[in-house]
Amino acid sequence: MSPPYLYMETRGSGPDLCLLHGWGTHGGIWGDWAAFLAASHRVHVIDLPGHGGSGAQADAEGFVLHEAAARVRATLAAAGVERVAVCGWSLGGLVGLQLVLDAPALVTHLLLLASTPRFVNGEDWSWGVAPGVLDDFAADLEEDAEATLQRFLALQAQGSPRARETIRALRAALAARPAEHTGAQPAALRGALRVLRETDLRGRLQALETPALWVGGRRDVLVRPAALDWAAAQCPRGQAYIVPAAGHAPFISHADELRPQVEAFLSHG
């Protein structure tokens, strides 16, 4: 196992809040969203193993969910964080969910943006993507990693009437960081795709006592709104909010609509 601490940037003051990015990106993706949250919270933006500033910290197997959650926990503990709200986007939401299941006393609120306890379809689950979609991304990584990442980035906005603006905003946020804190290790990308393909945390949601808000876009082609409604209903303190015209990145495409919902959620126990 690699050293436990991950790259982290901290800004703002107030209750602690941790942001966890999605597959193939880094903490810079949060851009204006982090600035908005930092007006009322001490925001900790963490790069997941093998991504961005944590690029040298890929696991031996590339990316392992419970180890990623453990490293987020260790990184926060090293910064003196004892209680924290967690906001995770897509893969980051899955890491956040694993974190709160492993350490429920640590997390005050769990905000999941376009994330789901199971990302792929199966015999008893039809609200994900076909397994072949992630298999194709894994195969394409071996041929042309950069083109694969750009294609995946385009999927984040697919279906939204603001697709072009969203893609431009995503790329600008990712490019705003110094080069040494960007990029992703191929092994981490492969491992994280495996996590998305194989993880199923549905059976553990009923034990989740932490307040959980599942946010999605009605036009998301990767995470179906019905999956978020179902997940919220399983959680004792769960709720769902679906942005009608958004795709997979509602915190970028529809930030103004989303902010009041998030503020209200984070301000209540």
Task: List its traits.
Rossmann fold; alpha/beta; 269 residues; 14% strand; seven-stranded mixed beta sheet; single chain
Structure description:
By secondary structure, the protein is an alpha/beta fold. It contains 10 helices and 7 strands. Strands 1-3-2-4-5-6-7 form a 7-stranded mixed β-sheet, sandwiched between helices. The radius of gyration is 17 Å and the shape is globular.
Instruction: Please state the structural category.
Output: alpha/beta
Query: Taking strands numbered 1, 2, ... along the chain, how are they ordered across the largest sheet?
Result: 1-3-2-4-5-6-7
Number of strands: 7
Count of DSSP H/I helices: 10
Biggest beta sheet summary: 7 strands, mixed
The CATH homology group name: Alpha/Beta hydrolase fold, catalytic domain
Q: Which CATH architecture would you pick?
A: 3-Layer(aba) Sandwich
- Succession of helices and strands: EEHEHEHEHHHHEHEHH
CA-based shape: globular
Number of domains: 1
Radius of gyration: 17 Å
Range of helix content:
40-55%
CATH topology, by name, is Rossmann fold
Low-confidence stretches: none
Beta-sheet strand percentage?
A: 5-15%
Mean pLDDT: 91
Distance between the termini: 36 Å
Q: What CATH first level would be assigned?
A: Alpha Beta
